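Below sits our specimen:

——
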Amino acid sequence: MFELLGIPPQALFGQLLLGLINGSFYAMLSLGLAIIFGLLNIINFTHGAQYMLGAFVAWMLLNYLGIGYWWALLLVPIIVGATGIIIERLLISRLYHLDHLYGLLLTFGLALIMQGLLRNEYGISGLPYGIPAELAGGQNLGFMFLPNYRGWVVIASLAVCLGTWFVIEKTRLGAYLRAATENPTLVGAFGINVPLMITLTYGFGVALAGFAGVLAAPIYSVNPNMGADLIIVVFAVVVIGGMGSILGSVLTGFGLGLVEGLTRVFYPEGSAVVIFVIMAIVLMIKPAGLFGRTA
């Protein structure tokens, strides 16, 4: 059928794979944003810089300490999440009683500081980060060639996103988190340390961005600007899925990645704006987003 349209099947499936890869990062980053906004009511514009920081920390661990990819997948989210905890305790916690605009301005400024510091130190040219030997090569599926590493990225992001959704929506810990956002005084009356829970929640959302940065490092060049453009698209994904909706962020992230890939096949000129066109349409029809709840 696609050959009748003048589209080789290899090109179609190749673009769908690229869309799925992009969707994996959209889903993980929008998931972290949704957690932070849905549970803390903070619009975290630093998220793109923290994603970039995850890739840089992985590069530094490899080049300065000889720590490879698999250990970086474990250590980088902890390191980046710890920086998020420090930021939340020292700065963001002072803004919870103020308008959302103050948190947006603060996190936007922090993102510019992070990018500027790394840009001054390493420049804007991409730093290489190799694919681990265990995931080199690929599989010939007949209709397309699937690189092993890109397949791993999709599987890892799916596992992280679904695991996070399950913890927040289906476990007692998740119930405590949701209750703490609605009535922190009541939750605190049961002996739960609400400020600590909020801090750890922010740290976990930031750790997701760091994890995504490690996954992205072998695919994209590690550079200070790698999160700047991506975060705009991720915010659009969050708005389409519904601000604060965990499942909405995951499904919308993967879905919009595939839509973007298909657009590159049928109308390449529109691939850069298709997500924003969808966002405008969704906001006109359902301002709360596809999975969002109206007030």
Q: What stands out?
A: DSSP finds eleven helices and two strands in the chain.
